[in-house]
Prior knowledge:
Layout: H1 2-28, H2 34-52, H3 57-61, H4 66-87, H5 92-99, H6 102-114, H7 120-136, H8 163-185, H9 191-209, H10 219-245, H11 248-251, H12 258-270, H13 276-307
Amino acid sequence: MENHLAGILWMLLTMCLFVSMDTVVKYLTQDFSQFQIVWARFFFHMMCLTILLRQQLLGVFLSGDLKLQLTRSLLLMLTTLLFFSGLRSTELSTATAIMFLSPIFVTVLAVPLLGERVGPRRLIGVMTGFLGALIIVHPQAGAGGVVTDLPASEGRWAWLPEPGHLLVICAAACNALYQIMTRRLRMVDSAMTTLLYSGVVGSIVLSIGVPSVWKSPEPVQWLLLVCVGLLGCVSHFCLIRAFRNAPASLVVPFSYSSLLWATLFGFLVFDALPDRWTLAGASLIIGSGLYIFYRERSVNAGNVADNA
């Protein structure tokens, strides 16, 4: 029971740290290119792990499936780049709510990629989740959608969601692919190996292009860029601890606490609160995500019982 409580607390801390990172990122997008911020996210992530693992670095770096590790790391880099780009013009709570689509995308993508079957109940859950996303990006959602009082000449585009919202939706889809790769890597590599590759691959790839958009930070801005990398690294470490201390069925629901953190930090830092459309859509996405999670757990338990 104590371990289970520890797992819940680790998950709550994880979500708080992730949203803290997103808050710093959104603040930095006022002055820096998203490429430079994403570079900092992975470079200082890599430096943090290199220092922590310096005595066993070589052993941790050895992978049982190098190709899969590289693919997963590139997907995480792309997810981060898309999300940070969308965050520039999207409210923190809205972006967080849209990212809840990731487990729903996982259910959809698991069919062609993992050969899993999706029954009618989970299919309804998927459709409900996407309905929630449509509500969030609805053109009449005020800050959560496109402004509808456009000139008549531009009226034909009024039904489109904001580009920032589309970027976050793409980030959620990429994140789903990243999660599927992570599932497969659990069979061959340790969590620390996977965490190390995330930082190394991201920082190397982004170092190639970041000089073209580089802007010299002030000392305080350097500190914030370092914080982005450290928060990203520590968040993943806390997530590992959460799943070590408690089963996924117990801690996963607490991952949705990130919307509470996003609402709080969005209000304190940016003086912004989610509108009713964002809250309504997020409720549908969270509800469908939880339903799909527990339905998959029930189906898997039934399969085990049948095989037994």
